[in-house]
């Protein structure tokens, strides 16, 4: 895992100066070079926090060299991790939306702008600098154009990289290279101090985990010798073990043999036994029981679970599965394990004098490499639990009653948790509906108010004395246009309501597909000309005859073309493609409308066809959010389907947005 640290940002009011990016010439401070080294040594001697050391060095070097950005990277001595800190000049940190101005790693990897110093600063392995730039440079406000970098060496080994960065082309002077070489040794000492502190922290973490394991075993030993009831002891053992190993789920499963005299024999036979979940611990409250009843999910037959059978066929050895997807074709698992949600499994048997009493099962939501130390810990826990179970056999009947009451309590708690979760979901749904209502009322208020306001102003102007005939005609046009907008809005709402109630059946008629598309595209010419757009029609050579409802078809295609025109970039091309397809012996017509513009996110795609829902990103465009919702309702009215797909364009912030309309070529009642 890479660690990314940055200095606090400042936000000056004047951001216009960033529009013209002046070329900055690096100039050294007038103080002697050795004073810079003394300052670095002072930072090493007086900074207690390792992160603060890197921050201060990055700030000091960036200011001393007068660069746009200074990046320092320290490699770890115990792992492949690296710690990076960057400092940027205030004018770049204050830039709004700075993270969107940088295209992450591919700009940092642009080798033509990566300038390394000449001898003695030649870097033998250029990947060292690449990696250091990637580690700490994702959030830099501008693309990197010039870099002066040098690796630091301590005790004969590279332990970090110092990178001086300019956001404009820049020629590094020999004085700058010499000064960077001069401070390299002091920085190497600082980086070594940081790496040593990280090494000590890692070792302390390892010791802490070891102490935690020892404390767990000691705690279980005390519990087994106490008068605590067995069920409580097992619960504590499973929860403590699962938490210590950071597992997502822990199970204690006990076996009930049909043949009480069964013992593991040389033939490694599979016993006739029923497995019952005695204790279940979950890190999260979510349920993994796949919707089955409590009795079905809490028990299963050994003959039905290949995972548990392995314990018997492997002579009582633990079963270790790092990722179930690798063995799912050869291994069956009982449903209660919820193996799809928890694919990493560790099954350790509870064994006493050759008899397997049950299992401890630990599961993880992600693939996990179970370590030998973890396996040893679970085996010691199993030994403690096995001894406790054998010692409590004389109280089996009493313990059974306790188990039944505990199971009922567990079931009640799970039911309460489910009811609580459902209540929470209902509250969230109500909040969402309330938000949609407010958004709808606000949207409708605006769309109703603005035309009425324009109409009112036109009426007042028409009443003015001495108004000319031209102005009268102009105000009458405004009245007519705004009135038409109001009527169209109301008609759209009525059409949606009518389509939802399914009051009318579609009135099919045969139309010429090519002529309809060409006519609708021609009507769009004024809007296309306003944005310098062109439309490319890819239609079949032989025109297709389609049986559909003409008015609905025209409105659907008009909405798709208008939407494409509205959200297309200036001087781009809108592609309209139509073709014939036969799927499952049904003739279909496929129409695709593709434009180049702002992409549609996965979140927006989930509600883009919902009424009164508008996209959140990009520039604002007027509208009520009814167009695509109405188009989808009309498509369903015609027994068709509509879908949207957004494909990012490489090396661009734009995307290809394609709406695909699928309609039956002929109605069900047509006779061919």
Describe the 3D structure.
The protein has 17 helices and 18 strands. The chain is extended, with a radius of gyration of 36 Å. The longest helix has 67 residues, at 396-462. A hairpin with a 6-residue loop joins strand 2 and strand 3. It has a six-stranded antiparallel β-sheet, sandwiched between helices. A five-stranded mixed β-sheet has the order 1-3-2-5-4. It has helices at 33-46, 50-65, 90-93, 105-108, 126-136, 174-225, 230-244, 294-297, 306-313, 372-391, 396-462, 469-501, 513-523, 525-530, 550-567, 602-607, 627-637, and strands at residues 3-6, 69-75, 82-88, 146-154, 157-166, 249-257, 273-282, 299-301, 319-321, 344-352, 355-364, 509-512, 534-538, 545-548, 573-583, 586-597, 641-648, 655-664. It folds into four domains: 3-200, Beta-Lactamase (2-Layer Sandwich); 230-391, 2-Layer Sandwich (Beta-Lactamase), CATH 3.30.450.40; 415-501, Signal transduction histidine kinase, dimerisation/phosphotransfer (DHp) domain (Helix Hairpins); 509-664, Histidine kinase-like ATPase, C-terminal domain (Heat Shock Protein 90), CATH 3.30.565. The chain is of the alpha+beta class.
């Amino acid at each position: 895992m890479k660690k990314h640290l940055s200095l606090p940002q400042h936000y000056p009011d004047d951001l216009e100066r960033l529009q013209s990016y002046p070329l900055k010439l690096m100039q050294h401070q007038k103080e002697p070079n050795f004073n810079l080294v003394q300052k670095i040594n002072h930072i090493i001697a007086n900074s207690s926090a390792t992160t603060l050391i890197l921050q201060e060095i990055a700030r000091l070097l960036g200011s001393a060299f007068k660069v746009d950005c200074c990046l320092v990277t320290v490699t770890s001595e115990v792992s492949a991790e690296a710690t990076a800190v960057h400092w940027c000049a205030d004018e770049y940190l204050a830039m709004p939306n700075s993270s969107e101005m940088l295209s992450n790693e591919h700009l940092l990897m642009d080798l033509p702008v990566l300038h390394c110093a000449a001898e003695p600063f030649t870097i033998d392995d250029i990947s060292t600098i690449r990696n250091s730039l990637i580690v700490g440079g994702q959030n830099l406000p501008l693309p990197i154009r010039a870099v002066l970098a040098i690796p630091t060496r301590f005790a004969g080994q590279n332990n970090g990289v110092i990178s001086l960065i300019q956001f404009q082309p820049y020629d590094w002077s020999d004085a700058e290279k010499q000064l960077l070489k001069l401070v390299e040794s002091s920085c190497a000492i600082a980086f070594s101090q940081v790496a040593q502190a990280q090494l000590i922290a890692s070792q302390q973490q390892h010791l802490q985990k070891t102490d935690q394991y020892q404390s767990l075993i000691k705690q279980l030993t005390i519990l087994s010798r106490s008068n605590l009831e067995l069920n409580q002891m097992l619960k504590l053992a499973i929860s403590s073990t699962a938490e210590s190993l950071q597992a997502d789920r822990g199970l204690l499963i006990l076996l009930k043999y049909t043949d009480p005299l069964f013992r593991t024999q040389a033939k490694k036979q599979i016993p006739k036994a029923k497995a019952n979940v005695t204790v279940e611990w979950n890190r999260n409250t979510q349920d993994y029981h796949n919707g089955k009843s409590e009795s079905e999910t809490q028990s299963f037959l050994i003959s039905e679970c290949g995972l548990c059978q392995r314990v018997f066929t492997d002579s009582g050895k633990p079963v270790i599965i790092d990722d179930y997807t690798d063995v799912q074709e050869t291994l069956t698992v009982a449903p209660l394990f919820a193996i799809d949600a928890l694919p990493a499994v560790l099954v350790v048997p509870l064994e006493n004098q050759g008899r397997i009493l049950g299992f401890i099962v630990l599961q993880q939501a992600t693939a996990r490499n179970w370590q030998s130390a973890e396996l040893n810990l679970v085996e010691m826990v199993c030994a403690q639990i096995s001894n406790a179970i054998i010692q409590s056999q004389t109280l089996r009947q009493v313990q059974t009653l306790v188990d039944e009451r505990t199971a009922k309590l567990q079931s009640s708690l799970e039911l309460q948790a489910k009811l609580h979760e459902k209540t929470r979901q209902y509250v969230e749904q109500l909040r969402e509906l309330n938000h949609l209502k407010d958004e709808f009322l606000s949207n409708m208020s605006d769309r109703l108010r603005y035309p009425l306001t324009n109409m009112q102003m036109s009426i007042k102007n028409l009443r003015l004395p001495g108004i000319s005939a031209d102005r009268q005609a102009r105000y009458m046009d405004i009245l007519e246009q705004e009135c038409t907008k109001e009527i169209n809005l109301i008609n759209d709402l009525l059409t949606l309501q009518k389509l939802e109630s399914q009051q009318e059946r579609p009135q099919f008629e045969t139309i010429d597909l090519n002529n309809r598309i060409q006519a609708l595209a021609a009507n769009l010419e004024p809007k296309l000309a306003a944005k310098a757009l062109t439309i490319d029609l890819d239609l079949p050579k032989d025109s297709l005859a389609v049986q559909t409802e003409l008015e609905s078809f025209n409105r659907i295609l008009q909405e798709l073309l208008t939407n494409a025109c509205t959200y297309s970039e200036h001087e781009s091309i809108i592609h309209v493609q139509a073709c014939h397809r036969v799927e499952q012996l049904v003739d279909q017509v496929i129409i695709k409308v593709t434009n180049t513009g702002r992409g549609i996110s996965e979140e927006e795609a989930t509600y883009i066809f919902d009424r009164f829902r508008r996209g959140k990103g990009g520039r604002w465009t007027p509208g009520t959010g009814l167009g695509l919702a109405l188009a989808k309702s009309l498509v369903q009215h015609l027994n068709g389907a509509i879908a949207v797909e957004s494909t990012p364009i490489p090396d661009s912030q734009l995307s290809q947005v394609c709406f695909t309309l699928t309609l039956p070529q002929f109605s069900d009642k047509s006779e061919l």
